[in-house]
Known about the structure:
This protein is an alpha+beta fold. It has one domain: YaeB-like fold (2-Layer Sandwich), CATH 3.30.2310. It has helices at about 35-40, 45-70; strands at about 1-15, 15-30, 30-35, 75-80, 85-90, 95-100, 105-115. A 5-stranded mixed sheet has the order 3-7-6-5-4. Strands 1-2 form a two-stranded antiparallel sheet. A hairpin with a 5-residue loop joins strand 5 and strand 6. The longest helix has 24 residues, at about 45-70.
Amino acid sequence: MLAALPEAAGAVESRGLRIPQRQYTLAIMWTILEQRGAANALDKLPRPAAEKYTLWCAIVRQSGPHGLRAIKSFHDEKLAGKLAGLRSSRLSLQWRVLYRVRADVVTVEVERVTPHDYRP
């Protein structure tokens, strides 16, 4: 979703008329797509992990994966080996969210939410 946010930039005088001038900055909202397995696992999450997932989603929608890296408690990292191409964020000591970033379409695809079990 693209939204134009106006910023005050002064006014311009033209033929005796004072015309307010505005600059627009594009605010890009990220989209989160949950795979079926991830959606089923969300129903089984304990309450604290579910609340942290809600916070995780809000941060991703607003500022994308870069926003997650700025918050240390998520311990966001890219994965290697069989899960190369995925990233992991910590919801609690036990629960992780595994996701893939598609920057070309501004989308984060949640592959699964798992109790720290990285088997493919």
